[in-house]
Amino acid sequence: MVIKAICFDADGVVVNPQLQFAKHLDEKYNISPEMTRGFFRGIFNDCLVGKANLPDVLPPFLSDWGWESSVAEFIRTWLQTEHIVDERLMVSIQVLRQKGIVCCLATSQEHNRAEYMKAEMGFQDLFDQLFFSCEIGWQKPAPGFYAHIEKTLAIKKEKILFWDDSLKNVAAARARGWQAEQYTGFDAFKSKMEKIGL
Hints:
A 5-stranded parallel beta sheet has the order 3-2-1-4-5, with helices on both faces. The termini are close together. By secondary structure, it is an alpha/beta fold.
């Protein structure tokens, strides 16, 4: 089947390596992943679907973690520390676009990072479409996330290829009739794309 559109996840795919902010917090500020786990597994999920605003919900957690600077500084540090774009993959994406393949970013993000990705990371110009969970109101692997993309692209499901590092997200895409692959690294990506004919 001819591929008309390819959707790429951000963290773990286009942004790679990931979790650099967690490492930075632990090493520089002694804020361990164990300390932040409750936040990221809890209220942060409301931020990811646009139901809560990160600057509003962070203060009590920052206090508990012993963060001594401002909320804005915490977010700024977060965004800049995670500004790691896999340039090899971005070059491949531009080649695909030149071939007429619609290339999209499909990622679970809250508003601050979504805006940062658009402007500071240049994704507004480097992708044909940007799909952020905070703007859609659903995050992967919820069916609503994929349904929104299908409606926007207006391309047959079987002609959409999805790359994500999470198997559950890949499985959810396949369940909707998409072609989907787990991203394990750039070399494996290139090999698979060559087999597909792209």
